[in-house]
Amino acid sequence: MERTETMNALNGAKTFEAYVAAVRALLAGANIGVSGEKPVPYGLRLDLRQADETVPLTLYYGKKGFSLVLAGKAGALKAKLEALFELAPTPASISEAALFDAAPKSNKPYGFEALEGFESGWIGTDESGKGDVFGPLVVAAVAVNPAIVSELERIGVKDCKQLSDKKVSEFAAKIRQICQGRYQELVLMPSRYNSLYATLKQEGKNLNHLMGWAHARVIEDTLAIAPCNFAIADKFADVRLIENRLMARGRAVKLIQKTQAEQNIAVAAASVLARDSFLKGLTGLSQKFGVDFPKGAGAQVSTAIRQFVAQHGKQSLPEVGKVHFRTFEGVL
Asked: Which of 19, 117, 139, 217 is 20 to 30 A from 273 (CA-CA)?
């Protein structure tokens, strides 16, 4: 495609995906490579490279259309990009954060920027405990509507990874009150988790298949008590892993799977509920067996395993840990 045609495609793009495709075409035509990319709020960042120079290019979407901004130091590649996209030279004093602040923003929640009709409500799902050797795997779903979104925003709900354990507990109590009758939590304690994992492994499947089933389950259960037409989940693998597990109710829903889905208020709320139930499950196991089970998969896990085996025997490990972790090799 000629550069003029590509620029016309860029300027006339109707969707963000078409805009990104036109940008990639321009870059390819100029022999500029993309060495990395990652989603950012309201857009996508591309790390562009030519020779020994790298320049970040961020593409944004919003109510006023699409835009792109360049960051990084002045140089031959940046000058070439400014000419390629017909941009005015970017002053060195302007930071990438300032450029983001000036970029167009969408007034729609993350994941729904290109959708219509979601305003009556949607479901968000998230999990906790997937990377923790001890304790349960928990998947939660929260159904929101405009009134609930306002309440969750008012109390400052955010992704659980940005919260201390104490704050997770405090927010979870408030979310359960605000979203009463509109959330579900699937708690797979280690014994049940290990049984399901073993069955799937015999079928040639893996943890992602278990995750897909769990997310589909909470979506279905939430739809039964809070019907809606949209759902959003974090994209952890092939999107079909959740889609193929949905039943009639879930298949009638528009399911969105995106990275960094916790930017959506419903997913953030689900992340808090899942983390809170995981922490409660881990604490309950510690109290039951008299062993301080650590979070995560670090070096302290091996110490806890040795202590547990000394007190309860290795045959009881499936009651407290996810035994497919390599940490258990040589113990079981």
From this structure: 117
In sequence order, the 6+-apart residues with CB closer than 8 A to the CB of 94 are: none
The Cα 328–Cα 148 span in angstroms is: 43
> How far is the C-alpha of 320 from the C-alpha of 82, rounded, in Å?
57
For residue 140, being part of any structural domain is answered with: yes
pLDDT exceeds 70 at position 83: yes
| Angle, CA of 128, 132 and 138, to the nearest 5° | 25
Rounded to two decimals, the pTM is: 0.69
Reply yes or no on whether the pLDDT at 102 is more than 70.
Answer: no
Residues 77 and 122 in one domain: no
In this structure, is residue 190 part of a structural domain? yes
CA contacts within 13 A on the Cβ side of 231: 34
CA distances from 102 to 48, 81, 97, 224 (A): 22, 19, 9, 42
For 45, the token pair is 């960042």
How many domains does one find in the chain? 2
Greater model confidence, 42 or 185: 185
CB 85 within 8 A of CB 76: no
CA distance 319 to 191: 5
Specify the DSSP element, H or E, that contains 24.
Answer: helix 16-29
Are 141 and 175 in contact, with CB atoms under 8 Å apart?
no
